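Researcher: Structure for this, please.
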Amino acid sequence: MSPSTRDNAANAAATSEMEGVAARRVALEVLARVEDEGAYSNLILSKVLDGSGLGQQDRGFATDLVYGSLRHQRACDHLIDRFLSSDPPPAARRVLRLGAYQLAYREDIPDYAAVGTTVEAAPKRFRGLTNAVLRQVTRSKIEFPDEQTELSYPDWIYEQLVTDLGHERAVAALRNMNSSAEATHRADGYTQDLASQWVVELLAVQPGELVIDLCAAPGGKATGCAAAGGVVIAADLQPHRVDLIVENASRLGLENLLPMVGDALHPGLRPHSADLVLLDAPCSGLGVLRRRPDARWRIDSQAPQRLASLQRDLVDAAVGLLAPGGRLAYSVCTLSAVETTGVDEYIQQRYPELEALSPPTGPWQPWGRGAILLPQAEDTDGMCLFVYS
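Model: Predicted structure, token format:
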């Protein structure tokens, strides 16, 4: 190799290392904003990346570092805590988690590179600690004391889903939600997970039908129903979220979609007027944790029960909007029994006149009188759907 070739190779390696350090520093900034300010990772990440100056490849790397460190936070803490004599400051723990994530889950990164660039990205006062602990991790076996630590979920989420789904299905769902979600697009270009697309297809909206979507933002299912030819009233409580519906409807050229600010508990719409009421209810989101990597650490153990109470109240409001012979669709992106079959039991007792329609098949599995789509079935969001007439 000529001197100039060696120089070029050395310069390329140095540039690559500097970019790797920069990507890790961006990741640490995002993780700090999530932990210290309560920012949502998917929202703050795009803002920080836009001002980072990173190229496309390094933006993707920083994104994986953020989401991976958050998803595997409990597992990473176990890996580093074995070599800590006391709890380090939050800023130091974030760096150590970042390094442990690379060592345990990024087989494409050599250990020496993961340690060296993470140390370089760390605040100076924590570089000695970072180097010492991460080198210990490289020399140790990657193993965990129990399944919930390995899967990296709070005990209550693990226990809830094992109880509700059974051990095999629950663990498969939790493993799937530790992977990243691929973007999928409808024929009209709208970005929407296949699970939500399939829900709209199953509703079989007919041209001219009046559809009321009570919790519509950002408008994925509402625009899907409108694209099928329905006249859609798309309501949401927060004006800024209704703006998202307006923006999406305008971009797709859907003049038959009518956004409005409205409280789903008190819709303010003409009773007994809708051919289809879609209640895509607020829920604990236990089926979409791959898309919301920090959500597993935000949701509290009482959330499913608390939200189930709200869901029952929303059902009461939705039923009052049904025209004779109309259909009620209840969907949630969670896998907990209390928010799915538990709400269906409430509907069966309170509204015996509503008959549950035959649940879908294929990747959907029977779930009470409805159906469940587990994340591992087709690598989609987890979803439950019940349709009544």
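Researcher: Any notable elements?
Model: The beta strands are 210-213, 231-236, 257-261, 274-280, 322-332, 365-367, 370-373, 383-388. Residues 179-388 form a domain with the Rossmann fold fold (CATH 3.40.50.150).
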